[in-house]
Each structure stands twice: as structure tokens, then as C-alpha cells.
Amino acid sequence: xxxxxxxxxxxxxxxxxxxxxxxxxxxxxxxxxxxxxxxxxxxxxxxxxxxxxxxxxxxxxxxxxxxxxxxxxxxxxxxxxxxxxxxxxxxxxxxxxxxxxxxxxxxxxxxxxxxxxxxxxxxxxxxxxxxxxxx
Length: 135
Known about the structure:
The protein is an alpha/beta fold. Helices cover 42% and strands 22% of the residues. It has two domains: 5-68, K homology (KH) domain (GMP Synthetase, Chain A, domain 3); 73-134, 2-Layer Sandwich (GMP Synthetase, Chain A, domain 3). It is built from six helices and six strands.
């Protein structure tokens, strides 16, 4: 985890405003801020009706995404790909296998030029050493 001064400032402001401990913070490929919060703090970070997210979005002048960390890599992947709800996510050997409901959902998981899949793998690899397969 590499943090620069800017990201540390984002984390401090986030923690002060929400009261939620941050496990990691980074910018995604679309220049959105992504916060990985500790397990059990996801709903508190979002706030009632998304009020915390809206306030922080106005402060940062950036889109914000919050992912709740989980010790179970399968649940963590489920949190990363939310709001998509695949049929099944399983752990087989050193792979996390995501079974998509249909080809449309499969396309959303993979993304144009595999960008969504690459993003999912990079977030997962910050915490776990698994590969992701989509069926």
C-alpha cells in the first residue's frame, strides 16, 4: 500500500467526517476515490440515505466509492462488485470463481477491454493472493 500526501489527507478527512477507520485508499482508473473501510463499517461510512457520501463528494469534488473489507475473500469480492449479484462466488484452489447470471452480467463484470476485471483483480490482490475467473 503506497500512500502519498494527498491520499493521506483524503483518509484523514474521511475518518474525521465519518468516524470510520480506513483500511486503504486509492484512485481508480476513472480518477474516483475508493475507500476500503474496516469490516462492519460500510453502512456507517455511507450514512443514512447516502448523506455521508454526498457530503464527502462535495468536499473532495470527486466521485467516491466505499468498499467494506471482509476477512473472507468471497464476501470481499461480493462487496467489490456490488451492486452486481452473481449466481455464485466460490473459492477453488487459488482462484475465485464468479458465476454470472447471464451474458449481460458477465459483460459488466469483465468490462470493455477487461478493465472491470483488471480493476477487480488489482483491488483483491492488495489484500489476498487469488486470481479471479468469470464463468
